Each structure stands twice: as C-alpha cells, then as structure tokens.
Amino acid sequence: MKLQTSLLLLAVTAAPFLTSCASRAAKQPAPAASATVGDKKSDGKSAKSTEDLDEYDAVSIADPLEPLNRATFWLNDGLYTVLFRPISKGYEFVIPKPVRTGIFNIFENVKFPVRLVNNTLQGNFKRVGQETGKFLVNTTAGVGGFGRPSDHIPALADVPDADTGQTLAKWGVGHGIYIVLPVLGPSSLRDTVGVAGDYALNPVNWVSIIYGGYSWIIAIPSTNTVRALPSQMGIYDAATKNALDRYLAARTAYIQYRREAASK
Question: Which of 30, 91, 144, 220 could form a disulfide with 239 if both were Cys (CB 3.0 to 4.6 A apart)?
C-alpha cells in the first residue's frame, strides 16, 4: 500500500507532463506497429520484412541509453498495468462521460498560459489571438471551460497546441537523445527540458506552490492526473498493442508526433 501511495504521489507531481502528453498525443495517429526483423539474406544482412521497419528508420533518434530506456519502458508498462490502468478504469466507471469531458476541458482551458507564452515566443501572433479568443469564449460561454463553444467557431477551432519543447524545436534545437522517463514515459532531452517550462507556466501548479501542503497536491494536481489517464492509456495501447517490439513502436509514435507538432 505504501508503495502504491508513493507511486501515485509521483504521478500526481508529474501531472502537468502526463496531461500535456495526453492532450497532444490524443491527436496523433498510432503507427502500424508490427515491425519485426525478417529472414537473413544470403549475404548475412537482415532483411526488413515489413514496411514498419522503414517507418522506424524514418523517424530514428539517437538512443545511446537504449538498454536503460528499455528497462524503464517495461517498468512503466508494469506500473500502467497494476496501478494506472485500474485507476483509469475506475474513473471511467464512476464518472459519467459528459462530466469527464467537462473536467478534461477545464484543465485544458486553464493551461492557456502555456500556449499563450509559447506562441508568443514562436512569434506566431495569429495563434496568440486565437488562443486568447478561445480562452475568453470557453471561460465565459463555456462556464469556466467546462464546455468548448470555441469548437463551433471556425476561426477558433482546431488551433494547434504549443508547448516549450515545440518552441525549442522552432528555434532549431534538436531532440538530442531519446529518454524514457520513469512513470512519465517517452521523451527526449529537448522535450524533458521543455517540461520545466510547461510546469512553470501551468496555473495548476501555482495552486500547490501558493497554498502548499498535501491537501492541495491531492485535490488539484491529482485530479489533473486522473482526468488524463483514460486518454493516456488509450494512446499507449493504440501505439503498442499489436507491435512485436513495443519499445520501438512507442518510440516511433512519440517522435513522429513531436516532429509533426514542430512543423505546424
């Protein structure tokens, strides 16, 4: 029980990163992750038996920590199975879908400063105006962000997300090495640094800093974590379920999406 409590508190502390990944990756298509190494050719070289391996090569990233990353990946996989997936299922069972959607929307609306600052740093002032408009519409007409009436306004719908890792990419900073973070999952050196910026800009964290104490950490960031779990688990399953090498599938899905996000 103490171990589960400690792991849950770790996830709570990491809530902004978890929810950031969930909201960004929810829009990404999962790759067809069934890659495997084919039969050996007569010259002794391995043949690629599926197109998926070509896809893996196309989105390659330096992975000098692969043995450690793989160990962390499987540790995370176990945690998802024994801890986070049951919490996710319980949340979906207890909370009706319209309420879950509203809670998700509220926390996404509160992340407005993350998107505003990063769009400004990227020099994308059109999106600064769009994000401001979305925030005002959803906060007022959407009752604190519970609803998303901005989705029905063409000029405000489908505005790409912006985060610190994306900003660094726009500035020409490369991914660096691939990193699998405990509990938090796939990342890169650049995006791990970007997490600190997103954390500082997310008002959800200001509450726990201002008021302090475990009561606020449990009440606000834990809700932020739990509301993202169904999406996060769904994304993870879609990316890895049918893969012969689930580690490569997860790595590819992450890098593909981050590359696409940086190009918008």
Answer: 30
Euclidean distance between CA atoms 218 and 91, whole angstroms: 15
pTM for the full model? 0.76
Burial of 28 (C-beta count, 10 Å sphere; 0-12/13-18/19+): middle
Instruction: Count the domains in the chain.
Output: 1
Domain membership of residue 39 (yes or no) is: no
State whether the Cα torsion 158-162-166-172 is positive or negative. positive
Structure tokens at 23: 């909201």
CB neighbour list of residue 100: distance below 8 Å, 6 or more residues apart = 91, 92, 227, 230
Cβ within 8 Å of residue 251, ≥6 positions away:
56, 61, 63, 178, 186
Q: Is position 170 within any domain?
A: yes
In the chain, which residue ranges form alpha helices assigned H by DSSP? Answer: 2-13, 15-25, 51-58, 66-79, 85-94, 97-110, 112-121, 125-140, 164-170, 189-201, 203-211, 213-219, 221-240, 246-263
**93 is in which domain, residue-wise?**
58-99+162-263
121-150 pLDDT, tens digit per residue, is 999 999 999 999 999 999 999 999 999 999
Size of the chain in residues: 264
CA Rg, the chain, in Å?
Answer: 19
For helices 246-263 and 15-25, angle between their N-to-C axes, nearest 10 degrees: 80
Between the two ends of the chain, the Cα-to-Cα distance in Å is 44
Residue written as token pair 């996060």: 232
* Residue among 244, 258, 227 at smallest CA distance from 28: 258
